[in-house]
Specification:
The chain is α+β, with helices and mostly antiparallel strands. It is built from 21 helices and 32 strands. The protein is globular and about 95 Å long.
């Protein structure tokens, strides 16, 4: 054993003596010293930030309406604006049609939103912002009351008080969910601050920056430098003079090879320890973020180096030339990069974008929706899916904008049996950034599934609901609307006004009628709703509370009861009688009694697995949940108990739905849909288009190579996982601008990260390479 320890010690000395290591360590220390003065300071927020202005168009309406009111916050704030400011805000309500499209940019770069923010933040600095009579009927928080009781407020405290008053007056339009503000400092000076981001919005950006810095300096330059230094260790070991001396000692050839391999890893270990430990100390001492999980980067990146070094080591044994070994490992690196990139690009385009994500049975036709929100109908004559219900070419939400801005919105055409048509919500961009009021669109087989605008909904709605007698309902945060239809002239007027104003003015008040009582449940932006097909009872879930609304004889919906589920997370729901299914972001699946709202059965998903879609049979005979790891869980609709039978697609299923007859439809994620009788577990029929050449190339070439070869890039994802602690990663978040992706929505396309399988798959490759090296040198004469 002492002989192997001596060999390992020689490798350590060789790493220490390396000038490359010395230069690298000096460079790391210099960079860390330059970064050391950077820091973050946290103070109370005194300005309104873009992400907190959740409903800018509604706030603008209320504010401009203050001109006709008295002793209200809107009236008082409107009176504080000068004539020029009032005119600019009024002009936002009646924009120039030529400017309306060009001004739609993003949630943070939008000039209309910025104008509103600037006006409001300017008012926050005024001493006469608060008027006791105007705020007398507005509920105030304890912090606000304490500040109002004081007469010795500083300018900062006064702005803080005014901000709280503003949020209280417009609670439906402003959401200050984090009172802290962050500033970037260098030494004692503030460089940028306060940042226009809430701490919750800043945290993922901060994690992304840290992971990127570590990945670049350690994952690329560090490993590349380590390979340059260590490429010659194995070839030198098996040179005639060196190997004869080593074999004269009581050592085995195979163990000699393994020991020298481990000795070569010392360089990366030293480099990683200095870099990661330095960043860890800076984050803790300067930014008060002691991210101990960052220290996991040391073994992770050493393991990443071992993947490439195992190839270099076996090449060095065979050719005994450091240049050849380094060339082969670089080619191996490039090959893995090409295969991994090809796999990700093809999976994104063929599976996520073109693959089936939603299904609807529309009379005799089966419709599917892909990841790009394109709708298809099955063509039985030619055994293929035909594109229908196409989005107009002039739609604002296409391509990149739709993919990110509307990624948390479910697109599912609903079949209206009474009118023999499908209905859906066509999203539109708001003039103030983000999404505006959607447009209700319809299509039918009789009209070749051409998308026909029906009118712009007064507010954002998560789904179209159709009652048993054919009434079309659209639930929103503030009201439940019933679509009554409109004439062609009214529809054209509504569409024109909605287009030029981004939904701010729709002109569709006659087409949509409120059918709710005055007392609506308090709902958040991410609320979900579902309608029982038999009883027409409406279930709504928002921020941990489940609400049951029942229809009256006059057709209006009134809240009957509510239940607090003790979890403020987002959810997905499907209602039926006698039981409904609710999936929560904490991993719980609840089978709920639709009448009493009591939990009949509860299932806890594995850690990190989240529900994506809930479905219920129209007759209540079955309930199903599809998770983000493409697993399907089934429940008996009559008892609420889980079923042990699993559909063959479970584990790679991307869409589920129930047919009107209660059979289950499931897609394999490519171009096939299968129908099952859950009671017998038999497949009834299939709709499958033969995949084209691109699918076959992906399935028979890229996927096998990707499965067999190691995946070093997944170790970068491992670092992201240990930094954030999230086992489900939003697929498009890294490519989206900060704050554009709603991480809390369960409708976001996610991947479940499996850290154990990542380590296992890459470790198997390293072990196989070491075994091959040991076998080769044990049978070779040196």
């Amino acid at each position: 054993m002492s002989a192997y320890a001596a060999i390992l010690k020689d490798s350590f000395r060789e790493a220490i003596a390396s000038r490359v290591l010395l230069i690298a360590l000096i460079g790391i220390v210099v960079v860390l010293l330059l970064l050391a003065p950077f820091g973050l300071s946290t103070d109370k927020a005194i300005e309104l930030r873009p992400g907190e202005l959740t409903r800018p168009e509604a706030l603008l309406k209320k504010l401009t309406a203050g001109a006709d009111q008295q002793q209200t916050p809107a009236a008082h704030l409107w009176s504080l604006l000068d004539d020029g400011q009032q005119e600019r805000l009024r002009r936002l309500l009646t924009p120039n049609p030529e400017e309306s499209v060009s001004r739609r940019r993003g949630p943070r770069g939008n000039p209309s939103r910025a104008e509103i923010l600037n006006q409001l933040n300017g008012l926050l600095t005024r001493n006469d912002f608060h008027d006791a009579d105007s705020w007398k009927n507005v509920p105030l928080s304890d912090e606000t009351r304490q500040l109002l009781d004081r007469s010795d407020l500083t300018q900062v405290e006064q702005q803080r008080r005014n901000l709280l008053l503003l949020a209280a007056a417009f609670s439906g339009e402003i959401d200050i969910y984090d009172s802290n503000a962050i500033s970037l400092t260098y030494a004692t000076a503030t460089i940028i601050g306060p940042l226009p981001l809430t701490p919750r919005e800043f945290e993922p950006i901060f994690e992304r920056v840290v992971v990127t810095v570590v990945g670049v300096f350690l994952g690329f330059f560090g490993i590349l430098g380590s390979l340059l230094v260590t490429a010659g260790i194995i070839p030198r070991t098996f040179e005639p003079g060196e190997i004869s001396l080593l074999l004269s000692k009581p050592v085995r050839r195979s163990w000699l090879f393994v020991t020298r391999f481990l000795g070569g890893c010392i360089f990366t270990l030293l480099y990683a320890m200095v870099l990661v430990a330095g960043i860890w100390l800076l984050l803790g001492l300067r930014m008060d973020r002691w991210r101990h999980e960052l220290l996991w980067c040391i073994p992770v990146y050493v393991f990443l180096f071992m993947i490439y070094y195992s190839v270099s080591a076996i090449a060095g044994v065979i050719w005994r030339n450091s240049i050849v070994a380094l060339t082969i490992v670089v080619l191996f690196w490039l090959g893995l990069t090409v295969i991994g990139t090809t796999q990700r690009v093809m999976e994104d385009n063929l599976i996520r974008q073109r693959g089936i994500r939603e299904m609807t049975v529309a009379g005799p036709d089966l419709l599917t929706v892909d990841g790009n929100r394109n709708t298809y109908v099955w063509n039985a004559d030619e055994n293929r899916w035909d594109l229908i219900f196409e989005v107009p070419p002039d739609s604002q939400l296409r391509g990149f904008v739709q993919r990110f801005l509307a990624s948390d919105q479910r697109f599912l055409p609903v079949y209206d049996t009474t009118a023999d048509r499908i209905l859906a919500l066509q999203l539109s961009a708001s003039r103030f950034g983000g999404l505006g009021a959607p447009q209700l669109v319809a299509g039918s087989a009789a009209q070749d599934w051409v998308r026909q605008p029906q009118g712009r909904v007064p507010d954002a709605a998560p789904a179209v609901l159709v009652t048993g007698d054919g009434r079309v309902l659209l639930p929103t945060r503030q009201a439940i609307y019933q679509f009554n239809g409109q004439s062609d002239q009214e529809r054209r007027r509504s569409d024109f006004l909605g287009t030029i104003t981004g939904g701010l003015i729709s002109g569709a008040s006659k087409a949509f009628e409120e059918v709710n009582s005055k007392k609506m449940p308090a709902l958040g932006d991410d609320f979900v709703a579902s309608l029982c097909p038999v009883s027409d009872v409406l279930l709504m879930y928002s921020e941990g509370k489940l609400h049951r609304l029942i229809p009256t004889d006059e057709g209006r919906y009134v809240p009957e009861q509510s239940r607090d589920l003790g979890s403020p997370d987002a959810g997905v729901i499907a209602a039926a009688d006698p039981y409904s299914i609710l999936g929560l972001a904490d991993g719980r699946l609840l089978v709920i009694n639709t009448t009493t709202l009591e939990t009949q059965h509860e299932v806890q998903l594995p850690e990190g697995v989240l529900p994506r879609v809930c479905a219920a049979a129209p007759d209540g005979s079955g309930l199903a949940v599809l998770t983000h790891d493409e697993t399907v869980l089934l429940f008996d609709g009559s008892t609420g108990q889980p079923l042990t039978w699993r559909i063959p697609e479970s584990g790679h299923c991307t869409a589920i739905a129930y047919s009107p007859g209660g059979t289950l439809l499931a897609s394999d994620g490519v171009l096939a849909v299968h129908e099952y009788d859950v009671s017998t577990g038999t497949r009834l029929q299939s709709w499958a288009e033969r995949p084209g050449g691109a699918y076959q190339f992906y399935q028979y070439v890229i996927l096998p190579l990707w499965t067999v070869l190691p995946r070093p890039y997944q170790l970068d994802e491992f670092v992201t996982y240990v930094m954030s602690g999230e086992k489900t990663v939003v697929v498009n978040e890294q490519a989206a601008p900060p704050g554009l992706v709603n991480r809390d929505s369960l409708q976001q396309d996610r991947q479940t990260f499996q850290p154990v399988s990542v380590i296992r798959n890459n470790a198997i490759f390293v072990l196989v390479m070491l075994i091959l090296g040991c076998v080769y040198i044990s049978r070779r004469d040196f």
